[in-house]
Amino acid sequence: MTTIDNGVNVQALLDAREVLKGAPEAAQFTWRASAKWENGVHSTTRIQNFFGLGQEHSHKSEAVFTADHPEVFAAEDNGITPIEYLLVGLASCLTAGVASVAQNRGIQLRSVESTVEGNHDIRGILGADSDVRNGFNDIKVTFTIDADASKEDIEALVAQSQKRSAVFDALTNPTNVSVEVA
Amino acid sequence: MLERGEVANSWRRERWDSLRLLTPNWQSRLPGHRYEGPDPDGYMTMGEVIEFIERFATVTRAPVRTSTNVTSVRRTDDGYRVTTSCGEIRCRAVVIASGACNRPAVPQFTAAVPASVVQLTPFDYRGPSWLPDGGVLVVGASATGVQLAAELKRSGRPVILSVGEHVRLPRLYRGRDVLWWMDASGVWDQRHDEVDDLTRARRLPSPQLVGTPERRTLDLNALATMGVELVGRWAAVRDGSALFSGGLRNVFSLADLKMRRLLDTFDEWARAHGRDAEVDPPERFAPTQVPESARWQLDLRSGEIRTIVWATGYRPDYGWLDVPVVDTKGQLRHEGGVVDSPGLYALGLPVLRRRKSTFIHGIEDDAREVIDHLTRYLALS
């Protein structure tokens, strides 16, 4: 069997799974972001630190995200809209999942591309119709994958990546969100 | 042999009226005892199962003590002290054969369901006439869930079925019962130490099968055709509304893919063993139809749903077992039925030693090996 390499250290993940089975407290992570209002609907969010495996960690460098609204919303368009960040999260999470599952199943990937479309009726956020929700009505993800595998095996990769995706779960299932004023 | 009630007690008291075995009659075999009736391809009713087991108890002259409820099993210096409703027994070894389905498992948020909605588990359910009129939400799409959803729909009620991960199977494949394939191809004989992910194999929900005289398939497409509304896995209750997962399409894909893979295994086996001529040609089934838009919310106070049936699985009850061999998830710690306490054994649990462990005919091979271990233990200790 030729060695396949998608650049995912699956052994480390499998080892972590075994260790954390017996140490659920170490598996508790907290991800953090800090946002600051700039002007108008323009804000900047910074991410650097997170907690996990019983201690504080720091990303190699701080990541800065600019959010704004487009000009058709009468804004300055300094960055993508907040709801588009959800698409970033979903696409990158599913893509990471495809690579990991492929590595674990011995499938060499050549290219993995996807498009994500979220359908959004903005009458909800504008308060124009109380029957319309604020968030996406639905999201459609389309993968185009070139790999040494049958169509069926590729479909199974994509299905398994959804099954183990944090963002897919966060978007498809309700989460308790508490927002407070400090 | 201690039995809390009568022989075949759970088949008498913990099953709904219309239930038939999922396995065809010819598969119902116990050591030296098999179905000998006129319909080998049929499925036993509960009455027939009770008769079958009773007859086995009689022919084998099994030393069954009925109406003897075990309330405690404790370790002693040289074995176990078993306390029962009929007194105490001291013994060197104990075989736990109380099964994996002693209590219906229900999610924690049942308490958040408004009181106006009647909640039932399969242990409370006998048939549609026991339910109030009006809509029913069946939660869970394993064998129990699909069977109850179909029966309730036929009774004229609007039925919504909440679907999580499930196991899809056709009743017949290439003209044979799908369980014939499981048996003949050796899938059922796969041993616990050969299974890739044993924990997952042991947690696998029962397949979407029903035993009917028509030998019909009861998958989600069949239910949708009957008019059962499919929604995602029930995730939470918020402000009196049930919230369902938006991931329905993926649980369909997973089940479709797994079914196809299993059918591929059958085809390969038939080809490799020269069995293609005795069965019909290979076939593939239409993917599970995804509803135009599955709702992810249901107001439980609106009256649309009068009853919830929790078909969310079962769990074992080891409340009487005063030996520290149960893990944090409530499952017995054992290796192929050899429990983590000398002289303590188990039989009849999911994939105990083989994939077929929980089927009636699956007990024979497991029992032989477990009892071998037990007799060696008794000889040495």
UniProtKB/TrEMBL annotation, chain A:
Gene3D superfamilies: 3.30.300.20. Transmembrane segments: none annotated. InterPro entries: KH_dom-like_a/b (IPR015946), OsmC/Ohr_fam (IPR003718), OsmC/Ohr_hydroprdx_reductase (IPR052924), OsmC/Ohrsf (IPR036102). Pfam families: OsmC. It comes from the Bacteria. This is Osmotically inducible protein C. It comes from Acrocarpospora macrocephala.
From TrEMBL, chain B:
Keywords: Oxidoreductase. It comes from the Bacteria. The keyword Oxidoreductase applies. GO terms for molecular function: flavin adenine dinucleotide binding; monooxygenase activity. The keyword Oxidoreductase applies. InterPro entries: Auxin_biosynth/cation_transpt, FAD/NAD-bd_sf. This is FAD-dependent oxidoreductase.
